[in-house]
Amino acid sequence: MYHITDDEFEAFQQLVYAETGIVLNDSKRCLLCSRLAKRLRALHLNDYIDYYDYLLRRDSGGVEMQEMINCITTNKTDFFRESHHFEFLASHVMPEVVARAAKGGPRRLRIWSAACSLGHEPYSIAITVRESAVNDPTWDVRILASDIDTLVLAQAADGVFDQDDLAPAGDMLLRRYFDRGVGAFAGKVRAKSSLRSLLTFRQINLIHDAWPIRARFDVIFCRNVMIYFDTETQRRVVERLVQYLNPGGYLMLGHSESIQWSPNPLRSLGNTVFQLVEAGAGKSGIA
Ligand SMILES: C[S@@+](CC[C@H](N)C(=O)[O-])C[C@H]1O[C@@H](n2cnc3c(N)ncnc32)[C@H](O)[C@@H]1O
Hints:
This protein is 39% helix and 18% strand. The protein is α/β, with parallel strands linked by helices and 287 residues long. Helix 6 links the parallel strand 1 and strand 2.
């Protein structure tokens, strides 16, 4: 077992905050130690300060910094987690974009899953899209799935899941959108190309200033990531996300995340669904 001093822990708190925006309060000390211990073993280092020094001075190309970030993130996720957001997508957003197209608007839908973890969220979005009236080859649909963690992102791009994870989707959707694994892959399922073809995976750090995105989105899911940020970082991230929404577009936050500052151009529709107020429709700050 390795020992971490108060000063070393504080140095890691600052480093993790600077790199990811994640606030590690004192109660996370054991968590940090256990997660980083495997990196110390992998690099044959004796203590945390050696690892800190390695990250700052010997980490050419930032490879180890990425390993450290992958260790620090918490990736808990589920299919159709907080299912009301997917119900809202099906019952409000899809009919709205279809109605917009019927009035001569573009047959285009853009959705971003902004901290997608292992992929359960963007694949749940893709299933919802496929089950809607937008499931038609004349529609141009893209779902961007991003995360800071390259390990979970690679798994998400593979589209392989434990079959048990699909329980919230039910048997019918499982059969329609996933192939069951056999042999060494028994108990696993892989998303069919009808889902995978909708998705693009990209590493994006939400606290970086430049996001490599040109699109504007009809819906952004940014759920259960801002709980790890402080209020100032949350405010900055939401302000940036708003700039990537189409007028009238929607922002979905996690159940324990809210926007407590005003004024802002979002109005709350309840249940952590927010809408970008269309120009000229009047702004309302929300609590
Ligand atoms: C708890 S998971 C949430 C997954 C999914 N959105 C959900 O609600 O089920 C949080 C994710 O946020 C990612 N994350 C943490 N800090 C981030 C940052 N600065 N930029 C982008 N993603 C980040 C983590 O890697 C992790 O996969």
